[in-house]
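In the design runs reported in the main text, the only information available to the sequence generator was the tokenized backbone. The following block is the verbatim input for one such run; it is reproduced so that readers can re-run the procedure and compare outputs position by position.
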């Protein structure tokens, strides 16, 4: 009678073995043998290489079954650090993280992404240097840098492509900007992809299909499909803010920042709410001003918020019908007006989507609030740095 092979099989290399340690508090040699199906000599070889590169370190003794206790080993999360910057339209959060992707220290500051890549990346790097200095670390200990931005990203090249609100960023070489400052990989992604991963890993680890909607200055979405971030063929997946909709009470289709007319964002994005409130004689300048006014119960502001909820709900309903997520998380500044916004979203989703797609669907507000992008970006970067195919090079680097 044959026994089933381990999921990793005897072909498990250094990268696969390191993944085991990254996902668990500690393991013994016997644990690795059982999980991989590798022989004792091969496990010793793999473990010696990881110990030699200080990616794995001893963590104490294991339980004894009558004899010498087995030595235990753990992933060396403090072997180096990661730096991440979650860049929004008007603000930026930066953080220093350990190699598991856990945020150790963070900062926040106001920026204008339309100032261009030079000033914004310089501001991020200035905060990186301060975080490193305060932690007693130097640039040589940085294993990777993660940047997310509020625009479409070609993930393979790390370049922003035709962003509606990011003047001067089109095709800019963000990884190249950091290359002369840090000798490490640089990952660049769309902000809402990072937000999606942050929420899923932190609160919904067993959910394999999830939609994250950012309703802030603009409107966008990130998708988790099969437990992984889904970017589409070219990194453009989830751009629901530029789905065109017909709104019955609209006399003319508003012009969107992308240049088209009638987009979801042109009706329901934060910048559109500011536009419409100002047209109604309200003294608002920013999206935060609009949110504050809506929360006071101002009749005009509440009416526009509920209308925005229905329009965003239209786009979410299309997404629910297409990918059948288990959870839809709403984040961004407009998620803070949950009472006014969510009623319209739920109304449209349950009206327009099939009962099978909505029978177990949860539509919830973000639980990480404005930290979801930062948390998700750190995890995304850690996964990328320690992807199995990269570990051989890390071991060689020592």
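Verbatim output:
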């Amino acid at each position: 009678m044959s026994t089933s092979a381990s999921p990793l099989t005897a072909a498990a290399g250094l990268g696969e073995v390191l993944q085991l340690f990254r996902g668990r508090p500690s393991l013994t040699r016997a644990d690795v043998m059982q999980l991989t199906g590798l022989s004792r000599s091969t496990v010793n070889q793999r473990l010696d290489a990881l110990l030699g590169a200080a990616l794995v370190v001893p963590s104490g003794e294991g339980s004894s079954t009558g004899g010498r206790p087995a030595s235990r080993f753990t992933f060396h999360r403090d072997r180096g650090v990661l730096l991440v910057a979650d860049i929004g339209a008007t603000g930026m959060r930066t953080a220093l993280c350990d190699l598991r992707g856990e945020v150790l220290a963070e900062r926040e500051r106001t920026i204008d992404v339309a100032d261009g890549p030079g000033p914004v990346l310089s501001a991020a790097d200035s905060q990186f240097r301060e975080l490193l200095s305060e932690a007693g670390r130097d640039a040589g200990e940085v294993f990777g840098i993660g940047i997310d931005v509020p625009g479409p990203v070609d993930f393979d090249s790390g370049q922003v492509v035709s962003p509606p609100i990011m003047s001067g960023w089109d095709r800019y070489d963000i990884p190249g900007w950091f290359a002369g400052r840090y000798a490490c990989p640089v990952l660049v992604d769309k902000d809402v992809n990072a937000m999606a991963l942050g929420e899923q890993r932190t609160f919904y680890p067993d959910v394999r299909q999830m939609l994250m909607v950012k309703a802030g200055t603009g409107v966008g979405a990130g998708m988790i499909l099969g437990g992984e971030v889904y970017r589409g063929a070219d990194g453009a997946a989830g751009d629901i803010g530029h789905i065109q909709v017909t709104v019955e009470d609209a006399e003319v289709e508003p012009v969107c920042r992308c240049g088209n007319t009638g987009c979801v964002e042109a009706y329901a994005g934060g910048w559109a709410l500011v536009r419409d409130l100002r047209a109604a004689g309200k003294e608002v300048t920013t999206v935060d001003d609009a949110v504050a006014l809506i929360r006071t119960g101002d009749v005009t502001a509440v009416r526009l918020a509920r209308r925005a909820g229905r329009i965003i709900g239209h786009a979410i309903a299309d997404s629910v019908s297409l990918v059948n997520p288990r959870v839809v998380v709403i984040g961004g500044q407009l998620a803070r007006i949950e009472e006014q916004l969510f009623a319209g979203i739920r109304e449209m989703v349950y009206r327009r989507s099939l009962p099978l797609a909505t029978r177990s669907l949860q539509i919830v507000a973000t639980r990480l609030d404005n930290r979801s992008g930062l948390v998700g970006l750190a995890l995304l970067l850690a996964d990328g740095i320690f992807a199995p195919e990269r570990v051989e090079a890390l071991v060689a680097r020592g």
